[in-house]
């Protein structure tokens, strides 16, 4: 009989002991935690002013990699939304604004300087450095965050670690998941399990309908 034992658990980290569970299923669960569980990330940038030394493209790349807290019940994937617009609507995107200026001294701009229209979706930590502004330099931009999946871009991976390791017992494995902060580690695990099971059920139904 298959059993699961929680060895370690926190908001950012979970480690399980899987016993008598097929390695293929366990590895699929590990992969789905990386590639199939959606989370929020900045995807579109509208820059109104950037007098810093950093190119717009590099700034956009840095913003895209900031982990954002995610509300899976409040938003849907852009491809599932009826709006079909590039910047999305309130159902599928969140607007974050960055408006910063260095007056008389060099100023470091951090992830916490991003102001979100929805407090449920914001930078997971506020102390990620984005750029240093020299005196009189300014950045003003709009950043649009959307749900996405890690199989499309690494910025949508909700995990930093997702590993399956052997033990001394051939029938036991350790599954370790560490979150970026976008979602609690246990929710990532539950979402990965649900998505994997749904795909398996859909495959079974398709086979039953087409194979006589």
How would you sum up this structure, described in words?
With 212 residues, the protein is α+β, with helices and mostly antiparallel strands. It is 23% helix and 34% strand. It is built from three helices and ten strands, in the order ββαβαβββββββα. The strands form three sheets. A four-stranded antiparallel beta sheet has the order 1-2-10-9. Strands 3-8-4-6 form a four-stranded antiparallel beta sheet, covered by helices on one side. A two-stranded antiparallel ribbon has the order 5-7. Helix 1 packs across helix 3 (185-210). The longest helix is centred in the last third of the chain and has 26 residues, at 185-210. The protein is elongated. The mean pLDDT is 95.
User: What gap, in angstroms, lies between the N and C termini?
Assistant: 32 Å
Tally of individual helices: 3
The CATH homologous superfamily of the largest domain is called: DNA-directed RNA polymerase, insert domain
Basic shape: elongated
Brief summary:
The protein has three helices and ten strands; from the N terminus they run E-E-H-E-H-E-E-E-E-E-E-E-H.
Question: Which key terms come to mind for this protein?
Answer:
212 residues, alpha+beta, Gyrase A, domain 2, RNA Polymerase Alpha Subunit, Chain A, domain 2, four-stranded antiparallel sheet, 3 helices
């Amino acid at each position: 009989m298959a059993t699961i034992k929680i060895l370690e658990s926190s908001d950012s980290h979970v480690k399980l002991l899987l016993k008598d569970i097929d390695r293929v299923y366990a590895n699929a669960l590990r992969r789905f935690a990386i590639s199939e569980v959606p989370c929020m990330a900045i995807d579109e940038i509208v820059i109104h002013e950037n007098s810093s030394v950093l190119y717009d493209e590099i700034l956009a790349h840095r913003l895209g990699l900031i982990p954002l807290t995610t509300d899976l019940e409040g938003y849907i994937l852009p491809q599932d939304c009826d709006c079909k617009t590039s910047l999305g609507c309130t159902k599928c995107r969140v607007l974050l604004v960055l408006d910063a200026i260095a007056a008389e001294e060099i100023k470091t701009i951090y992830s916490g300087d991003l102001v979100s229209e929805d407090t449920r979706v914001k930078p997971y930590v506020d102390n990620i450095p984005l750029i240093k502004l020299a005196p009189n330099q300014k950045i003003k931009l709009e950043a649009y965050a959307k749900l996405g999946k890690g199989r499309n871009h690494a910025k949508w991976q909700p995990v930093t670690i997702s590993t399956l390791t052997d033990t001394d017992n051939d029938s036991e494995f350790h599954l370790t998941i560490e979150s970026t902060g976008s979602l609690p580690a246990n929710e990532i695990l539950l979402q990965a399990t649900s998505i994997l099971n749904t795909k398996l059920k859909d495959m079974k139904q398709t086979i039953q309908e087409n194979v006589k």
